[in-house]
Amino acid sequence: MADSDLAEAALRLCQKRGAEQAEALLIRHQEKATSVFNQKVQFSAANETTRIIVRAFRDHRGAVIHGYVATEEMLETLVNQVISILPHTSPDKYLGGAGSSGVVSGPLEIFDERLAQLPLNGVEKIALAAEQKIKERDKRTENLITTDLQVQTQTVTLRTSAGFSGSYQHTLATLFANAAVDDADQRNLLGTAATITRSLDGLDLNKTAERAVQDLTRTVGTRPAPAGEFPVLFAPTSAWSIAALLFQMCSGSATLMVETLRLGKLNDAVCSPQLTLVDDATKKDGIGSAPFDHEGVKSARKVVIEKGVLKDYLLNSYYGRSLQRSSTGNAVANGDARFGVRFSNAYIETGDSDPDDIVADLKRGFLVTRFLSPSMPLSANFTQAAEGFWIEDGKVAYPVRAAAIAAPLREMLAGVVAVGKDLDPATAIASPTLLVDKMNISPLM
Amino acid sequence: MPGSKFSRRNFLQAGLAAGTGFALWELYRLGFSNQIDRNNASLRAFAEMGLDQEQLRKLLDIALEGGGEYADIFLETSLSSYLGFNGEQFQNSGFEAITGAAIRVSTRNGTSFRAVTDLSWKSLTQAAREAGTASRSDVRLPPSSLKPLQTPNLYPSASPALFEAITEKQQFLNRVVESTQKAYEHVRVAIANYRDTLRFLTVATSDGVFAHDTRPLLKLTISVAAADLNTGKTGTCFFNGGGHYGLEYFQQHPPEQLGRRAAEIVRHQVEGVAAPSGQLPVVLGPGYSGVLMHEAVGHGLEADFNIKGYSVYSGRIGESVASPLCTIYDDGRRENLNGSINFDDEGVPSSRTPLIERGRLTGYLHSRETAAKMKVPLTGNGRRQSFSYPPLPRMTNTYLEKGETPSEEIIRSVDFGIYARTFWGGSVNITTGDFTFFPLEAFLIEKGRVTAPLNKVILLGNGPEIMNRVVMIGDDLEISDTLWDCGKQGQMVPVTVGTPTIKVEAMTVGGSNG
């Protein structure tokens, strides 16, 4: 059965069972993946799955079914189940579909036919070539390189009882490279790099290899960082986690939590005036771009924090109604009838400082290149384990072992005193270099 | 019935004709109610779809018709019901269904894998042919012959929660939220989420394994945020309980117990003082602190990392990697625990695998692939999130064996340090062995007594270094009944952890008080 027919069938079933509103979203996922190690293809996969999410509403009550359902018969069983639980959910006047809907006009360049048509052996050849590029740059890594390449094509189909009917395709290639050193004295060195792109031409093997080899040297000769209060400089490879925290604070689904943690509300200054946050689902070639969200709301560009002030929330239709605002087109389908909120292409706007100048101006400080645990839940205190380099007299002095860095979150966000001009928005969330004036550092000895 | 449309339609029509209205549901229920051999409910469920033993044997032969050294088929139907409660409204209600199959063919050079949600015979045979074509070998195996795998049942619940009335489940949500709010006046947010899952699994392998499992899983989570408006201090907590149970879980573990503990944890955070930082003695309480074993040891012993030489533990079997006081097991055979499995997702019975014995590294955790490459026995640790992922070496229930020292004596031995007893997770750099883990609840130890609770703190260390600094081990081993979800290469699997009280003589404590 075609996706659009299955979506239509789901709507009909819901309505037949008494739903006043319904939506059916189908995501057909085709994936070719390979893993290369030691010059051999160790693993290759070609998968095809179809995920369906159906939302049904009646009397201001809502429920969801979702999963991998191959046939209309199985769908019917599940629709019956979900309709049967509707009376047991609480009425909520904000529940319901998006109502207004739309599609971004003009191409978003999120689908590459050449990438979609790449055969599995073509995927394997690219992964093998990436391995070769790393080996050419650092002979010590020979026989210790893993390259994983996944090429995905998704077809997203949405039908709603309000009359929305839309479908789009997008492609995504993700290349991971891990390179270790075969050296008795330096056994515990591993360099990693990742590239994510919408197109075949975006798979820059040289750049990925270069970054993996650079990363390999990061842990050579590490020493403990000094303990105490110091400036902390977040390189873009770690600063994106700070951006992600800020976007959690701007989510319309988290307002109660954010206010409870006293992190701010609309029109409050929530961070340094040097910071402006943008979410842009219409960015050409963007990893998070789409013509419409999972409720059929047209994608848009939003400035959510402007010069440190929370100007807008990221919203879907439910949280929009509950806050007397409009959806910003950031709905993501999940198992909750309210749906979730997610960013699309989210970034901290580029600043005017050259990162090299920021380093040169530091007497002493910690340059963080990565967090041991990059995803962080919201909390009033920021306390994380980080890796990177120690800066002494304006120069990178030595790589440091992992160290704990801590500060109250509000103080840390307010303490951003410089923003680099090195934004590289190649991923769905990105940040330029950020300098925080002081944080407490506790080194791993 | 090769060549014909599989019989799900007839199967459903039969159910509908019986007047149930929920044919598939009723047949799953019927399958599970076969109490003679509950695990075979999976066999029954898939056989009704036309995927019986003979069909699976034929698929294996098709996968291997071009040559190959090993092939397997993984069939899954997973059904979940879930609902949430915020103290005022029942929200977030629904069902999740996952149905699919994966076919895998291996040679000495590599593995090819196909996952599909279309379970028609045409789709399955195409997947088997493609997997076989991609992994050709000159090795020819004889036609497959399948024998049922018999294992003890580690999840003896007679009544899976999936089939219980939603009103039954709602009362547990009410009770956990109410008890959380009552237990601490500064609670501002208390949201309970409930989920039960029933996974019907079948594994058929070219070396003759024909295994069926029906895995119930139940999880009740409470998310709490508290703020004291007078002091401006806040706290947050995610806390859960459950395992391979039906609703009978709540008879032994009343929801109020979970609610009161969650409230106590956030109260300790709100009332907490700024944590010290630096190198300090750390006492880890029993149960949840086993996350240390998971992060500092377990991940580094997953064999896929070690085959590539990427782990800090690579090539170190037989070496001393921990204090001689330490003996660590991964044990998938403990009844009802979150990480327990009758057999792994490759049809290998789970086992109790010694990882470290008296400080010496004794072994790694294996999937079929890594065990074959390292030429060692299988450990039953080949696990996957669902049919659409390939199996990887993963932990199950990982714990440190108990020692002989009473926990009070361990705390008395510390003049100034940290006592941490509840955690929400952790993370590790496999190659350096550096890890961090995050206490939900920690206290100061001053002059041999647990004193003030601490606001946010993290603990940081290096696996082998910290395990060599374990100087005391308590006699109070506990396995946490918290449902941990362990992530690796984009896949989550359920695990749990355990430990008795232990003392690490020095560890990096990251707090905001320098």
Could you walk me through the main structural features you see in this protein, from its secondary elements to its overall organization?
The complex is a heterodimer of chains A (445) and B (514). In chain A, helix 1 (3-16) runs parallel beside helix 2 (72-85) and helix 4 packs across helix 5. The N and C termini of chain A lie far apart (61 Å). Chain A folds into two domains: 3-217, PmbA/TldD fold (2-Layer Sandwich); 221-445, no CATH class. Chain A has helices at residues 3-16, 72-85, 113-117, 120-137, 205-216, 236-249, 255-260, 317-322, 355-360, 409-414; strands at residues 21-37, 40-58, 61-68, 145-160, 165-180, 190-197, 228-234, 277-280, 301-306, 309-310, 331-332, 340-341, 346-348, 364-371, 381-392, 395-408, 416-419, 429-430, 434-443. With 445 residues, chain A is of the alpha+beta class. In chain A, a hairpin with a 2-residue loop joins strand 1 (21-37) and strand 2. Chain A has a six-stranded antiparallel β-sheet. A five-stranded mixed barrel of chain A has the order 7-14-15-16-19. Chain A has a five-stranded mixed β-sheet with strand order 10-9-8-13-18, with helices on one face. Chain B is of the alpha+beta class and 514 residues long. Chain B has two domains: 8-155 and 200-216, 2-Layer Sandwich (PmbA/TldD fold), CATH 3.30.2290; 278-510, no CATH class. Helices cover 24% and strands 36% of the residues of chain B. Chain B has helices at 8-17, 23-32, 41-48, 53-63, 121-134, 166-183, 249-252, 255-270, 291-298, 303-307, 368-374, 407-412, 463-468; strands at 70-85, 90-106, 111-116, 147-148, 187-205, 209-228, 233-243, 278-284, 328-331, 352-357, 360-361, 382-383, 392-393, 397-400, 416-428, 434-446, 449-453, 458-462, 470-473, 478-479, 484-488, 491-499, 502-510. In chain B, strands 1, 2, 3, 4, 5, 6 and 7 form a seven-stranded mixed β-sheet that branches. In chain B, strands 9, 10, 11, 14, 20, 21 and 22 form a seven-stranded mixed β-sheet that branches. Chain B is globular. Mean pLDDT of chain B is 89; it is low at 1-22. Chains A and B meet through strand 2, strand 3, helix 2, helix 7 and strand 15 of A and helix 1, helix 2, strand 1, strand 2 and strand 3 of B.
